[in-house]
Amino acid sequence: MRGCACGDRDGVSSPELGVAHVSCLAEQAKILVAEAVKNNLGAKEEDARWCRWNTCSLCEQSYHGVVECALGWACWETYLGQPEEHWTRGMTMTLLENGLSDAKHYEDALIVREARLSLARRLGASEHVILVAQSNIAGTYQSLGWLQEALRVRQDVHYGTLKLLGEEHIDTLRAASNYVLSLLNLRRNAGRRRACRPRRGRVGGPLRWRLRRKSGCLGGRQGGRGRR
Fold this sequence. Notes:
globular
């Protein structure tokens, strides 16, 4: 594979650079994180080693495209057995949803992002974490062409962020900008068929079956709070 700056960014495409098996990258990341946890190296070191799941150790650039997606799945498989309140579960879902989105599997990414939001609510996450999850969902709606859904959620995120952080906070300004852009985009595409979410309800298909089969709807219903 090549999925970082070593092999295929900035016009570089060399068979001698950036080549590795995804399974090897996954195993390396798994071992590094496990060592940090086993030796009680602390959250800072755990975070640094976790970056091996999405960042090349040679060029220090993020993986992208199908490589990012494949590592997201590998990460999901690795930590699937952890309780849902364990810190690895939320981070694993974030990696998977980002990988799916970067590979343009938007409907699949939406499934994971909706599950991520559900998990955050079950674990009593902060309002800020909830708003970030909702904003990610809105972005996926936008990518899918579900413009009215994107506008609705971004309006909610804007009002929620304004109430939580105040009108001058950078996150509030960013949420306001996203809301305005969604409104303009909807107006530009008035009458477009896919402006609304399909009436069939939640997206589904092979990915939803796969996640349910492997984890019981993404990890059961245990309570508690994680590190994140």
